[in-house]
Design a protein that fits this description.
alpha+beta, BirA Bifunctional Protein, domain 2, Rossmann fold, 6-stranded antiparallel β-sheet, 5-stranded mixed β-sheet, elongated, bis(5'-nucleosyl)-tetraphosphatase (asymmetrical) activity, glycine-tRNA ligase activity
Length: about 280
């Protein structure tokens, strides 16, 4: 992160943050537990710059934001553990560090972290490089080194936690059904649309019309391969919350379609003209 370049070109007002995401490499001796511990992984982090006197306020703010993020992606609060790292175990430059641990199927492991790094990074870089990295406050005329609060997120571990949380099995008509109980906001597709029978042009045409209309404002999957049961199962396994089926009643009777709920398996008849509003309310 080129702090000086950002200061000189964007002129941000303190407090401000810079977020970045990238690939990291580690000489990991014992990789394992699928993608939990690997030698190559994706990392997200935020460097949030504050005045020294304000660090506690913004540390609490980012703690709350991290809790909200974990709630948003569907991680159960009873599986998340907030761990204050004691003085003797923190990095020498950190005045406060909090780790978030999650109950994975293979045990309680670290998921995220947040640290107050004070002015350690900028001060050391300035001393070694000779470049003035102080922030200038044009309101007060003051120059100072900002202090840094750093929330960090492992992307691979996030994905693994979400999959662990959402993987669900139940029994339907004597058979085991597997599905991902993903929160709607992170489901790859919000809705799937199918004709009941792919070889009936009138059904396929109407289903395609609905698909084209819905995809203008939401992520929609199209599937016309195999029987309707197999299509439902495919969408269950990738976590699609709702499936819309166009059948003969749609064409010949009342212009209604069947909307199936992934979690409850409940099927509701909805008028095609009201479908977009119905789904909009469901997935908001």
């Amino acid at each position: 992160m080129d702090f000086k370049n950002i200061i000189d070109t964007m002129h941000p007002k303190i407090p401000f943050g810079i977020a970045q995401m990238g690939r990291a490499f580690r000489n990991e001796i014992t990789p394992g537990n699928f993608i939990f511990r690997t030698r190559e992984f994706e990392q997200m982090e935020i460097e949030y710059f504050v005045r020294e006197k304000d660090w506690q306020e913004f540390f609490e703010y980012w703690l709350d934001q991290m809790h909200q993020w974990m709630d948003l992606i569907g991680l159960s609060s009873d599986k998340i553990h907030h761990l204050e790292v004691p003085d003797g175990e923190r990095a020498h430059y950190s005045k406060r560090t909090v780790d978030f641990e999650y109950d994975f199927p293979f045990g309680r492991k670290e998921l995220y972290g947040i640290a107050y790094r004070a002015d350690f990074d900028l001060k050391n870089h300035m001393e070694q490089s000779g470049v003035d990295l102080r922030y200038f406050d044009d309101m007060s005329g003051e120059r100072f080194l900002p202090h840094v609060i750093e929330p960090t997120f492992g992307v691979d571990r996030t994905l693994l936690a979400v999959l662990s949380e959402s993987y669900t099995e139940d029994e339907v008509n004597g058979e085991i059904r597997t599905y991902l109980k993903l929160p709607t906001i992170i489901a790859p597709y919000k809705v799937a649309v199918f004709p009941l029978l792919a070889n009936k042009p009138q059904l396929a045409e109407k289903a395609r019309e609905i698909y084209n209309d819905l995809k203008l404002e939401m992520r929609v999957a199209w599937d016309d391969g195999g029987n309707i049961g197999k299509r439902y199962r495919r969408q269950d396994e990738i976590g699609t919350p709702y499936c819309v089926t166009v059948d003969f009643d749609t064409i010949e009777k009342d212009d209604t379609v069947t909307v199936r709920d992934r979690d409850t398996l409940e099927q509701t008849r909805v008028r095609a003209s009201e479908l977009k509003n119905y789904l909009r309310e469901k997935i908001k």
